[in-house]
Amino acid sequence: MNIGLNGLFLSKKITGGGRYLLNLVNELGMHKTNENYFIFLNRKSFKKNIINNLFIENINCGFCTSFRPLRLFWESLLLPDVIKKNKIDLFHASGFTLPARLPCRSIVTIFDMTFFLMPEVHQKVKTAYFRNRIPLTLKKADMIIAISNQTKNDIVNILPEHKIRVIYLGLDKKFKPLGDSIKIQTTRMKYNLPQKYILFVGTVEPRKNISRIILAFDKIKKKGSEHKLLIAGEWGWNYKEILLTINRLGLKDEIIFTHYVTDEDMPFIYNGASVFVYPSLYEGFGIPVLEAMACGVPVVTSCVSSLPEVAGEAAILIDPRNIEEISNAIDKVLRNSGLAEQLKIRGMQRAAKFSNQKMALETMDVYRKVLSG
């Protein structure tokens, strides 16, 4: 059987969706089966990214490059013909949408439903596109993969689709406590990291609630904390308000933006942190929470959306709209070494329940059920 996967997220800089696809395909490649995997992506991604990120020697797959000038044009007009040419039996879209016409069975992975639940945190053009395309995709797909029960419930509540299978995201084995103090120090120098820092990881955009992190951090600094705030992530849209808040509070020298961090360096960034804070307003899953836990970092995260489902009882859960609550939780971890150690142990135990192998095997099971149906 030939299974095609949409490599849309495999751009020059790998973020959440791209990491999901890389983890999935790499793990699928570890299991010798009768399936052949084809990744459809543009030539630029193929040349600059795939060779370095996929363990090609372990994968029974073909790379079908296709120029992607515009997403809608590529998915609707070009991709179906490439799928047909390569005799694909099942197409897996890992980025919310399917081509309008498909010559084979199909599966789509839905990460979240924020385009319907929180349209204000996205650009208007992007929101309009996905609000139009997602309902059509869900109706067309033979099976829908949701990355959490929260996402499944959101899909069902908004669009009454019930052909849904929940498959949690996996966690790369490189996220773990690291004893390589030399490498940690090298990473500190590379990104100009302080000795003590509170960490946030994610795209700098409204949904991530960074403005409230900064306001909470301001309260911590006023209590005399020596820690700085490290924000590891690319600029998203509408980030200028965040910079204005930093300048207004006089925190320019206390907050460090690393911008994009490579996958290789990310575990060392986590390992150097005193506490990880992730008060996102909404997440379909929230993989940085698991990554931080796996690295032995105490976690403070939101009590909303999928985050309690992912964190379990291994993190301090806070109201993401309550600045005082965010600040007090972080301060508590920084001042109470016993609590920090307890969260560290619970977090590592919790993170151990999630793996790329489990994610891949469950996804493979969906492939086979759809193909045999």
Descriptors:
seven-stranded parallel beta sheet, 2 domains, six-stranded parallel beta sheet, alpha/beta, 15% strand, Rossmann fold, 373 residues
Give me the secondary-structure category.
alpha/beta
User: What is the second-level CATH architecture of the largest domain?
Assistant: 3-Layer(aba) Sandwich
Main-sheet strand order equals 3-2-1-4-5-6-7
| CATH fold category name of the largest domain | Rossmann fold
H/E element order: EHEHEHEEHHEHEHEHEHEHEHEHEHHH
Please name the fourth-level CATH homologous superfamily of the largest domain. Answer: Glycogen Phosphorylase B
Oligomer kind: single chain
CATH first level of the largest domain: Alpha Beta
Q: What are the segments in which pLDDT stays under 50 over at least 5 consecutive residues?
A: none
Q: What gap, in angstroms, lies between the N and C termini?
A: 14 Å
What does the average pLDDT come to?
A: 88
User: What is the percent of helical residues?
Assistant: 40-55%
Overall form: globular
Strand content: 15-25%
Concise overview:
The protein is of the alpha/beta class and 373 residues long.
